[in-house]
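Team,

Forwarding the record for the chain on the shared tracking sheet. I've put the sequence and predicted structure together so nobody has to dig through attachments.
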Amino acid sequence: MNFMVHRMQRGFTLIELLVVITIIGLLASVVMASLANSRIAARDAARVSAVKEFQKALELYRNANSGSYPCATAGCAAGGAAGVVINDGAVNNVNTLIATYFRPATELVMPSIAVTGMLSTTASIVYRVGSTNGSNDNPDRGSYTILLRREQAVGAIPANTWCTISSGTGHSAWTGAYARCY
């Protein structure tokens, strides 16, 4: 009995303290990993929401402009069907035309990645008015395609790759190269 009383007064041993610290460290690392995944999922959800808002803005623009979607360049000049980044904070013809309907969220920008047929970009949302022959100079203003980049793998879409959302015929060069988003 004296031994037990004497042992309790000494406190914890070094081994006991190390075990407790190790357990706390493991628990903290598990929590941090799950928080990182939650943040990625939240950013992806915000991008999908932004795309849906952008699609609504495009429809509002189309209703106000004789059934035509906006071109990448003013007056649909050469390059009118080119891809335009929507959420990198840069001012472009599309952002200007639909400004009354949609304000792009620059916090949805991602780390730089190469995009097939485009320069490296930090964008996660790219818009292109449809084209009748696959060239940038002959826009079909009755259709569009949006590229959306996801950070997390979703179904058949791998992480950090692009998927498409199209209205009408869209742009064939994009719709054939990427999986459909939803």
